[in-house]
């Protein structure tokens, strides 16, 4: 393996466990592809990383300073693209890893984007609506020179939503002097958002699961599904896969989990969560802890929460046929090897959860053209792109006799490497 530079390796905020995981995944693909050492060096660190302080006045008139980040990993194929998360654990290493995964994801789906990610270290649930708005607008102002429809296009992620994107769009537009809907995706429909964007990530997860079932000669009817996480991605995955005839038997959120071996009523559960914010207390279910939920016997396990949930410690007890990674980085490197040896069928994160960025691309195009598509057209285009990507990964996996994650990374890295060689090195 070619030695790498070590400028950031002593920085504990940058070289975090999740960043080490993303880097190790890339190096596995680079080794398999025998990637040119000079190209390898250009992938291992982000193109740029911005760290900002965000002072805002809280409702009690005190001033609090938050830390914000925006990382552009690569822009070879086009503007960088990636979400903004508001979460207490946001740090530079996490954002850098997520930006790298976005690079691979966009290349795999054939989108004209590079990878980016951003975030603010905060607890959005502890902030009032006015405090969230001030935080969002000041953060946007601090990074405004590094975002734009032709440069870097943010989107929602954990702890953010279409309202946060609306405030970002408005702030950017106020600075520029006119409305610019293409600056963010995941906006409300009435200011240039796209039909189908809210459900897109969950819909893409289900498209991948259906393709995996076809490959494994499984029928959806009655198959048991377990979903860790019941936010936007988890809830929409649950509803869409329920409509396919599967039975969602367990779900969880940040507070608790619920289980019914005969299947949960997803429509009623979403109504319950709308009222109470949490799955806890839902009728016709029993409580279940996160550890036990991940280890339930099922046909499909969908981790749709945070990273590093399936580890060396619990990988032997994961009891599913298909593992569909709706979250980013939910499976550690050590767990990957265990699951592969046990024969579980993996749908890796850069494939499984790519529906969101795909419809974000559709929203970006619609915003640039001021021409909007019907929801059915969007969903059909999404299906075509996701299913094509899935089958490309599956074919390479079978041909090269590698696992699905490595196959997906190989396709992505190779595509960007060829583009870098075509463009050359400036100056």
How would you describe this structure to a colleague?
The chain is an alpha/beta fold. Among the domains are: 46-180, 3-Layer(aba) Sandwich (Rossmann fold), CATH 3.40.50; 200-352, Rossmann fold. The chain has helices at residues 17-33, 37-44, 92-108, 129-142, 162-176, 197-215, 232-243, 266-276, 290-294, 333-342, 349-352, 355-369, 375-400, 404-423, and strands spanning 48-57, 63-72, 80-87, 114-121, 152-156, 224-228, 247-252, 257-259, 286-287, 300-303, 322-324, 345-347. It has a seven-stranded mixed β-sheet with strand order 9-8-7-6-10-11-12. Strands 1-2-4-3-5 form a five-stranded mixed β-sheet, with helices on both faces. Helix 3 links the parallel strand 3 (80-87) and strand 4 (114-121). Helix 1 crosses helix 14, helix 6 (197-215) packs across helix 12 and helix 13 (375-400) crosses helix 14 (404-423). The radius of gyration is 21 Å and the shape is globular. The model is unreliable at 1-6 (pLDDT under 50).
């Amino acid at each position: 393996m070619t030695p790498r530079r070590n400028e950031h390796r002593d920085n504990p905020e940058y070289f975090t466990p999740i960043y080490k995981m993303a880097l190790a995944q890339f190096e596995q693909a680079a080794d398999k592809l025998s990637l040119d050492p000079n190209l390898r060096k250009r992938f291992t660190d982000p193109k740029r990383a911005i760290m900002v302080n965000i002072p805002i006045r809280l409702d009690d008139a005190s001033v609090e300073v938050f830390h914000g980040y925006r990382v552009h990993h690569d822009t070879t194929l086009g503007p960088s693209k990636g979400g903004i998360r508001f979460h207490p654990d946001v740090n530079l290493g996490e954002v850098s890893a997520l930006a790298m995964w976005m690079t691979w994801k966009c290349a795999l789906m054939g989108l004209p984007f590079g990878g980016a990610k951003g975030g603010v270290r905060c607890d959005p649930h502890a902030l009032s609506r006015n405090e969230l708005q001030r935080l969002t607008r000041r953060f946007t102002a601090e990074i405004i020179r590094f975002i734009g429809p032709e440069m870097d296009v943010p989107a929602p992620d954990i702890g953010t939503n279409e309202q946060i994107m609306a405030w970002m769009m408005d702030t950017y537009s106020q600075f520029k002097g006119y409305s610019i809907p293409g600056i963010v995706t995941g906006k409300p429909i009435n200011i240039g958002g796209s039909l189908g964007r809210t459900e897109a990530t969950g819909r893409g997860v289900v498209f991948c699961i259906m393709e995996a079932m076809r490959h494994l000669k499984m029928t959806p009817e009655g198959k048991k599904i377990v979903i860790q996480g019941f936010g936007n991605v988890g809830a929409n995955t649950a509803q869409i896969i329920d409509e396919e005839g599967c039975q969602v038997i367990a779900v969880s959120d940040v507070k608790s989990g619920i289980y019914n071996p005969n299947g949960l009523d997803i429509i009623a559960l979403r109504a319950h969560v709308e009222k109470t914010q949490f799955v806890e207390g839902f009728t016709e279910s029993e409580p279940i802890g996160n550890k036990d939920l991940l280890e339930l016997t099922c046909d499909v396990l969908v981790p749709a929460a945070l990273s590093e949930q399936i580890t060396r410690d619990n990988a032997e007890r994961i009891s599913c046929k298909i593992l569909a990674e709706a979250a980013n980085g939910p499976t550690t490197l050590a767990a990957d090897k265990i699951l592969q040896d046990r024969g579980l069928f993996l749908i890796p994160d850069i494939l499984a959860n790519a529906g969101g960025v795909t419809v974000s691309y559709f929203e970006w195009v619609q915003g640039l053209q001021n021409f909007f598509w019907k929801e059915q057209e969007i969903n059909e285009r999404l299906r075509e792109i996701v299913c094509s990507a899935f089958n490309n990964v599956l074919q390479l996996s079978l041909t090269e006799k590698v696992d699905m994650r490595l196959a997906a990374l190989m396709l992505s890295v190779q595509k960007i490497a060829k583009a870098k060689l075509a463009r050359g090195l400036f100056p």
